[in-house]
């Protein structure tokens, strides 16, 4: 089903030990609280561990009473700082710059519209998790999940694909498949994200034929 995004902000969270990162698309900074709470629950459920320390910048979404109270209740030590001056947090600064560079290169090579810059950042985050870290000497994915990834599902950003459109979403007389462009990954390696040219519509699908060498 197509989803139309209007994204202004990307929340970038990185585990300092494994260099594994998470990106979340947000419309406003006010969404930071709920996204972070959901992330904490996800970490506790999947990693069976609790976050003990959080380093953020001094922006209001991290320094308001509601956010601070939530961290205090969760037993998380919170350090506010100027990320440009904190040596310890050079990783997150470098990671942000790397994500932007990867996204720019992917969009330039593919010719994909800048309308979906946010999707390029998300895809870049997925790719970066599967590239050996100069800091740890391991894939962040392997370090975080404690297993090696199967990378056979990876595809080139912007690759055209014939995507199956479910019957309930087809208009009268519309073909079963539609030519869309690959722009990212879902929660598992079988779910892909596709962009409809000329729009900001994003489709999620597990049923697509990739045209890797077709423009």
Automatic annotation (TrEMBL):
Domain named Integrase catalytic: residues: 1-148
PROSITE patterns from the UniProt entry: INTEGRASE (PS50994)
GO MF assignments: DNA-directed DNA polymerase activity; endonuclease activity; hydrolase activity; metal ion binding; nucleic acid binding; RNA-directed DNA polymerase activity
GO BP of this protein: DNA integration; DNA recombination
Organism: Micrurus corallinus
Domain of life (superkingdom): Eukaryota
Keyword Calcium: no
Alphabetical keyword list: DNA integration, DNA recombination, DNA-directed DNA polymerase, Endonuclease, Hydrolase, Magnesium, Metal-binding, Nuclease, Nucleotidyltransferase, RNA-directed DNA polymerase, Transferase
Entry protein name: Integrase catalytic domain-containing protein
